[in-house]
Amino acid sequence: MTEATIPLVDAERALSLFGARDQHLRAIREALGVSITHRDGEIRVTGEEAAVARATQALTQLNTRLDTHGSLTAEQVAEVLGQVTGQRKAMVAAPIDVPAARRIAARTPGQARYIQAIRENEITFAIGPAGTGKTYLAVAVAVEALKHHLIRKIVLVRPAVEAGESLGYLPGDLYAKINPYLRPLLDALHEMLDYDQMKRYMEQDVIEVIPLAYMRGRTLNESFIILDEAQNTTIAQMKMFLTRMGQGSKIVISGDTTQIDLPRPSASGLVDALVRLRDIPGIQIVQMQKSDIVRHRLVQEIVRAYEDDSKAGGSRRSR
């Protein structure tokens, strides 16, 4: 048996390195068959000599990544373990752990890239056609983060822009008028939380589902904020939304740039942001493809048919 030590004075740093509920630590122990403890400002690794050497190498690399990113994801830990063991694998995003009975997992390589991007970046843009899971997967990762106490609040946001219909002619008060726009976000939540839990979270303001206009003037700390249908934001609205981000927060922005319902599509805040922000560290853009559509098999054919119609100069407007 061999023992190695790694200086790590800061207890808070050890918490970040080991992960929520020691999930990163368990992954290293199980992959390499070593014992790892943290005591007196040091990490102590015990086991067979070769395994201890690999574990020490992995912890050193993860410590360096922590300096760069400020946090670690399960995917980053798996990548480093693959490097030190020589067992590199094609990227597969870890299943999303939500309170529902079944775990949610990526069904396409594009979805796997999307999940990993959300976990590794402060701001993620997801661009692609309907049915690729842009909204559903973002909500799932948000619920997972809430479950593991990585955030304190989920905020789901949509612009209330008419797609051929008029809000003024819809019956009821303001909430009744905007409810159809927020319905897709609520439907996703219902699949991941039981009714009582979701009701309790919404009553306690842990989960908030609101129109974009209601974001003005706020600062959201330790929150997971999702903007859906972002192609229908104006440039000013997108700037307003992005600047609501506070400390410890994460943002996911999803949209389809072929489905802009604004009077002037060139004024889309999403299109503008993709150009302005593409080179900023911590922001990643994920492009979903028709091959990532996981709804009914006919949805891919429908999307393709409308694309062909557009290329031929025909009109196009689908949902």
Outline the structure in words.
- This protein is an alpha/beta fold and 319 residues long.
- The protein has eleven helices and nine strands.
- The protein has helices spanning 11-18, 23-32, 49-69, 74-85, 109-120, 134-147, 174-192, 195-203, 235-242, 269-276, 297-311; strands at residues 2-7, 35-39, 42-47, 123-127, 153-158, 207-211, 223-227, 250-255, 283-287.
- It is elongated and about 70 Å long.
Write a concise synopsis of the structure shown.
The chain is built from eleven helices and nine strands.
Jot down its keywords.
single chain; 6-stranded parallel β-sheet; disordered C terminus; 11 helices; 319 residues; elongated; 3-stranded antiparallel β-sheet; alpha/beta
Write the layout of secondary structure elements.
Blueprint: E1 2-7, H1 11-18, H2 23-32, E2 35-39, E3 42-47, H3 49-69, H4 74-85, H5 109-120, E4 123-127, H6 134-147, E5 153-158, H7 174-192, H8 195-203, E6 207-211, E7 223-227, H9 235-242, E8 250-255, H10 269-276, E9 283-287, H11 297-311
Parallel strand pairs: 4-8, 4-9, 5-6, 5-7, 7-8
Antiparallel strand pairs: 1-3, 2-3
Helix pairs in contact: 2-4, 3-4, 5-6, 6-7, 9-10
Low-confidence stretches: 162-167, 314-319
SSE succession = EHHEEHHHEHEHHEEHEHEH
> Taking Cα atoms only, what radius of gyration do you get, to the nearest Å?
22 Å
The spatial strand order of the largest sheet comes to: 6-5-7-8-4-9
What is the makeup of the main sheet? 6 strands, parallel
**Helical region count?**
11
Beta strands, count: 9
The residue-averaged pLDDT reads: 83
How much strand? 15-25%
Helix-strand category: alpha/beta
The outline comes out as elongated
| Amount of helix | 40-55%
N-end to C-end Cα span: 62 Å
